[in-house]
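User: My collaborator sent over this chain with a note saying "see what the structure looks like." That's all I know about it. Can you take a look?
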Amino acid sequence: MTTEAVALTRKDFESGEEPRWCPGCGDYGILTAVQFLLPELDVKPEQMVFVSGIGCAARFPYYMKTYGLHGIHGRAPALATGVALARPDLHVWVIGGDGDMLSIGGNHLIHALRRNVNLKIIMFNNQIYGLTKGQYSPTSELGKVTKSTPFGSVDYPFNPLSVALGAEATFVARTHDMDRKHMTKVFRRMHEHKGAAFVEVFQNCNVFNDGAFDAILKRDARPNMLIDLVQGEPIRFGDDQQFGVAVNEFGEPRVVEVAEFGESGLLVHDEHREDPTLAFALSRLSNAPTTPTPVGVFRDVERPVYEVEVQKQLAAEAEKKGPGDLAKVIATGATWSVGD
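Assistant: Without extra context I'll predict from the sequence alone. Here is the result:
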């Protein structure tokens, strides 16, 4: 006797806990996009784990009817690496904010990316510390006046995508909380990737940093300010596709007018290019969300997955020496000799 598979719905991924973010917070939109997407991925709730650190974004696991782990500040990528190594059969997603991931967690993030652990990392970037009430973060712009920088920040901010590409992440993308369709498309691509995937989401904190992305995300601004990257096509944008992206003699990208420059000289997007140099250059086209800014997938390449390689080593060792005896290891006293 066979039973037909029951189609999953958003309800199957909702924990029933009421989300507790400030009214109007962009986190609601990201949560909704994920909950609508997951039923379409042919993944059961019990096959997923959401791991987070500390911050507003880190509440995410509470609202998902999946396995979840709310860790300590900045350590989500490290904790998630442990989960992925122990249970490579699970889908491990990591949720964190710009402060959580790029400040105290920066070291854990870059090593998870360079190792190519099979993690799906979503970084909510609102350019501020929200949970602790509005201090400047590693992505806050120069001159940012906050409670912790009353005279204006003198710290040069991180460009999150440049950090990820510099760490040789095999999948790097950007989306924003004002477009569920775009978020869903990017998250789907992230899920399908085998290896470390990093997605930056521009997310509005309407209490402590409201309007940080208005210059590019207001509805009337988007056509001329968002550059939608499409694999294999010349990079063009604008109300009438009148603008494009080209590179100069130094390999630096710049915005040009297609009518004057010509389409043949435009940069053709290649997210599968093995060398990350061009993707890195695109990530530098806009170092702040106030000028034309690329969104979509910057890089998607294949490389051996960390936990797969570790499992191969363990299997090879077991074949040589036979299976280990965990009970014996646990019962063995820890003894050692020091000196002569």
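A starting point for your reply to your collaborator: DSSP finds twelve helices and eleven strands in the chain.
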